[in-house]
Design a protein that fits this description.
Blueprint (H helix, E strand, L loop, with lengths): L2 E8 L9 H5 L6 H12 L6 E10 L4 E6 L4 H9 L14 E3 L1 H11 L8 H15 L1 E3 L4 H5 L5
Parallel strand pairs: 4-5
Antiparallel strand pairs: 1-2, 2-3
Helix pairs in contact: 3-4, 3-5, 4-5
């Protein structure tokens, strides 16, 4: 029977310590091998938390698969805006600005993992997240832009 381990790791910086080591140890997997593969597959998300699922398909032979998700929209927004963390008061204090093209780029990355019907709805979700982290879009309040999204 396959076993799944779901963890959130920093892109390209997974280690054999918690949360991976304690979860992998009882399964008998080579922790360094698994960590190396995770780091290689998540290095493009450096500085962001990335969801990773490790599925042990055959415990007897120690075969496993790694599935890497996309970081949360808030992390992608902050990276695009060049900010290290969200605003403590997002309605009054802004931490950065991005373009509508960057919103679309993030929406395309996240679309597969959302329940949105189309890319426009995913863009509205990303814009909603921009509101909550204090990021403006094209120098405007994201609430103004969310109403008229059409591509």
């Amino acid at each position: 029977m396959a076993q799944k381990i779901e963890v959130l790791v920093e892109g390209g910086k997974a280690s054999g310590g918690p949360p991976l080591g304690p979860a992998l140890g009882p399964l008998g997997l080579n922790i360094n091998d698994v960590v190396g593969r995770i780091n290689k597959e998540t290095e493009r998300f450096a500085g962001m938390k990335v969801p990773v699922i490790i599925t042990v398909t055959d415990p007897a032979t120690k075969k496993y698969e790694i599935s890497v998700g996309t970081p949360p929209a808030s992390s992608l927004l902050l990276k695009e805006a060049g900010a290290t963390k969200g605003s403590p008061d997002p309605l009054r204090q802004k931490v950065g600005n991005i373009t509508m093209d960057q919103v679309k780029k993030i929406a395309e990355m996240k679309h597969e993992s959302t329940l949105s019907r189309d890319i426009e709805d995913t863009m509205k979700e990303v814009i909603g997240t921009a509101i909550s982290v204090g990021v403006t879009i094209d120098g405007k309040d994201p609430r103004e832009l969310r109403k008229g999204i059409k591509i």
